[in-house]
């Protein structure tokens, strides 16, 4: 197990690094990868002193203050969403679960849409108002979904998904209503609900970073418990797992990850669905591998998606949520078909 | 697997146990005492509360009134993990069709004994797993995903998982329901051998009266929310009992090998 993890982990980390360099190098001004690597290495204290500066100050500006913040943010958003997706799939034991099945992202987007509608995005605590409010409305949504799903102190899987879907359609309708009512600001809400990473400085990265690290550590430490849950709740409980507590903690952590990701980048769908499944296909069902690799590969997936969003119709930018939906929705359909086939295979 | 034999003591004690679902009484004032090392079969017609009784003992369902003691401690005083160190449950449907390989599923039985870093409290755990795989002839299947196994193989994996749990008490909920006769007898022999070697206490809900008679040292008959008979298969499996509890005409005949009673069903007489 640990050998497998080291192997896959190394491979994915190398791909992550290469992706990062390629994405930083690609844009209206294209920069050679070697130069980017040297600019980045130069930033490391002490070690970087040995590297002589052979690039123009504008290149350094583009790398450090224009492209890198956006790309690192994309990496973190991707990692959060993929981690959350893996966690939801593990707890719900539903291969089609995704941060969005629970309605959390819709909850976050409603909070943001309300702010934009009334023009309050910069009130209270300045630029941080939008993420903070989106985060709280996401958490409240989770709380309502859990409350709706609760039966005699337990949360049955089916009713959790049902209440998630109900909340999602209701909140989606409210956001659509606000979009329709708003005259001047229509584009801003719409753009936000479709997801974007543009014009986000380092401050957003700083908000997201601790959540990703804490989320990764907690979920990874719960990986063995998620494995046990695959046996079914009753069987897992007979094996010594405190099922309700495990479900509660994993759901809360996954929701925090989703809400913070959505609050900085808007609604970006399907990442939490596609990435953990790709990993599952390669490594098998063990969450001790799926959790850490989801974080890395979620970052890779998001960087490539954002590169496509920036470059395909350049200089026009496509909303990121559209790119991930183009990739993710067919994948969802494929999973649905495979599931159907498997069920029929079992019955026959 | 070389624990010293446990001296006879109280493994399970149920006192004045009531279970009510809504307005429906399922079990009423149940008092049962089971000693360590007993192989107890619970029999009774459908809907007599057999599975509820098992759930009450395993802690999956809480009693409306009364108390359950496991190894002389109240059930409510155990944490989930501590309870699983004493008591294992093998369900009717065993293990779902997951893609974990067989050896991983068997290892999952060790969960109650892991510390927070995932290290096993018991140093010779690898030997234990190997021994279990030997005993259940699972080595050839070790790397196969559970979802690819047949029902009989899957039930063997489920047994391997509870064996890895090394419990003092094993609860079986109609474990042979989905197995053909070959796997039924194989499964019961494996449980029986384990029970004898380890001094394990086994409580099994059984549908098959003849299988129960072959393997259990004591039978409890559950009928109309209570225990109506309690004793050795010889005393319990009589024509009168089968008629009274199941409403079926039967003839009891001694087994040619061991002399334990076997129940033969009778058809309705002509013209009735």
TrEMBL record, chain A:
Pfam families: FecCD (PF01032). The chain crosses the membrane at residues 6-33, 71-88, 100-120, 127-148, 160-181, 202-223, 248-275, 318-337. The keyword Membrane applies. InterPro entries: ABC_BtuC-like (IPR037294), ABC_transptr_permease_BtuC (IPR000522). CDD domains: TM_ABC_iron-siderophores_like. It is a multi-pass membrane protein. Signal peptide: none annotated. It is found in: Cell membrane. Keywords: Cell membrane, Membrane, Transmembrane, Transmembrane helix, Transport. The keyword Transmembrane helix applies. Its main location: membrane. SUPFAM superfamilies: ABC transporter involved in vitamin B12 uptake, BtuC. PANTHER family: ABC TRANSPORTER PERMEASE PROTEIN MJ0876-RELATED, FERRIC ENTEROBACTIN TRANSPORT SYSTEM PERMEASE PROTEIN. Belongs to the binding-protein-dependent transport system permease family. FecCD subfamily. This is Iron complex transport system permease protein.
TrEMBL record, chain B:
GO terms for molecular function: ATP binding. Pfam families: ABC_tran. Residues 12-249 form the ABC transporter domain. Gene3D superfamilies: P-loop containing nucleotide triphosphate hydrolases. The keyword rRNA-binding does not apply. Keywords: ATP-binding, Nucleotide-binding, Translocase, Transport. Coiled coil: none annotated. InterPro entries: AAA+_ATPase, ABC_transporter-like_ATP-bd, ABC_transporter-like_CS, P-loop_NTPase. CDD domains: ABC_Iron-Siderophores_B12_Hemin. PANTHER family: HEMIN IMPORT ATP-BINDING PROTEIN HMUV. This is Iron complex transport system ATP-binding protein. It comes from Paenibacillus shirakamiensis.
């Amino acid at each position: 197990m640990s050998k497998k993890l080291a192997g896959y982990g190394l491979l994915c980390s190398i791909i992550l690094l290469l992706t990062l360099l390629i994405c930083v190098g690609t844009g209206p001004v294209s920069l050679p990868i070697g130069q980017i690597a040297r600019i980045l290495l130069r930033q490391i204290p002490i070690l970087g002193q040995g590297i002589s500066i052979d690039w123009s100050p504008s290149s350094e500006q583009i790398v450090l203050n224009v492209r890198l913040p956006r790309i690192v943010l994309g990496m973190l958003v991707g990692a959060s969403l993929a981690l959350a997706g893996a966690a939801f799939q593990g707890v719900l034991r539903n291969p089609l679960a995704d941060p969005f099945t629970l309605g959390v992202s819709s909850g976050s987007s409603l909070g943001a849409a309300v702010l934009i509608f009334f023009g309050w995005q910069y009130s209270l605590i300045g630029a941080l108002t939008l993420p903070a409010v989106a985060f709280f409305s996401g958490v409240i949504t989770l709380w309502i979904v859990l409350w709706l799903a609760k039966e005699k102190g337990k949360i049955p899987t089916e009713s959790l998904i049902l209440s998630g879907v109900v909340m999602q359609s209701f909140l989606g309708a409210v956001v659509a209503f606000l979009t329709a009512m708003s005259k001047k600001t229509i584009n801003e809400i719409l753009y936000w609900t479709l997801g974007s990473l543009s014009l986000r400085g380092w401050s957003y990265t700083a908000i997201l970073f601790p959540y990703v690290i804490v989320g990764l550590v907690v979920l990874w430490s719960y990986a063995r418990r998620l494995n046990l849950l695959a046996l079914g709740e009753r069987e897992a409980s007979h094996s010594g797992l405190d099922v309700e507590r495990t479900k509660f903690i994993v759901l809360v952590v996954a929701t925090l990850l989703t809400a913070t990701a959505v609050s900085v980048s808007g609604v970006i769908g399907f990442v939490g669905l596609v990435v953990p499944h790709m990993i599952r296909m390669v490594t098998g069902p063990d969450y001790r591998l799926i959790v850490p690799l989801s974080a890395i590969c979620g970052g890779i997936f998001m960087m490539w998606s954002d590169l496509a969003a920036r470059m395909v119709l350049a200089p026009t930018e496509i909303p990121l949520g559209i790119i991930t939906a183009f990739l993710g929705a067919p994948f969802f359909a494929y999973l649905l078909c495979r599931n159907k086939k498997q069920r029929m295979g079992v019955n026959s | 697997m070389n624990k010293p034999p446990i001296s006879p003591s109280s493994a399970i004690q149920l006192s004045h146990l009531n279970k009510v679902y809504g307005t429906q009484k399922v079990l009423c004032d149940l008092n049962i005492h089971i000693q360590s090392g007993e192989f107890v079969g619970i029999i009774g017609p459908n809907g007599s509360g057999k599975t509820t009784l098992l759930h009450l003992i395993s802690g999956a369902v809480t009693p409306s009134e009364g108390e359950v003691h496991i190894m002389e401690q109240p059930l409510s005083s155990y944490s989930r993990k501590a309870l699983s160190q004493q008591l294992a449950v093998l369900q009717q449907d065993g293990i779902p069709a997951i893609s974990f390989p067989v050896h991983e599923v068997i290892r999952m039985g060790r969960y109650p004994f892991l510390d927070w870093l995932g290290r096993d409290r018991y140093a010779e755990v690898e030997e234990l797993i190997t021994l279990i795989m030997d005993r259940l002839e699972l080595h050839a299947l070790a790397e196969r995903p559970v979802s690819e196994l047949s029902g009989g193989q899957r039930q063997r994996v489920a047994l391997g998982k509870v064996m890895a749990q090394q419990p003092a008490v094993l609860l079986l909920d109609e474990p042979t329901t989905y197995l053909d006769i070959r796997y039924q007898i194989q499964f019961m022999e494996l449980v029986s051998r384990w029970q004898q070697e380890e001094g394990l206490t086994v409580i099994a809900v059984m549908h098959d009266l003849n299988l129960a008679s072959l393997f259990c040292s004591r039978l409890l008959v559950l009928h109309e929310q209570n225990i109506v008979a309690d004793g050795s298969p010889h005393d319990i499996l009589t024509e009168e009992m089968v008629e009274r509890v199941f409403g079926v005409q039967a003839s009891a005949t001694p087994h040619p090998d061991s002399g334990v009673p076997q129940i033969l069903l009778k058809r309705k007489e002509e013209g009735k």
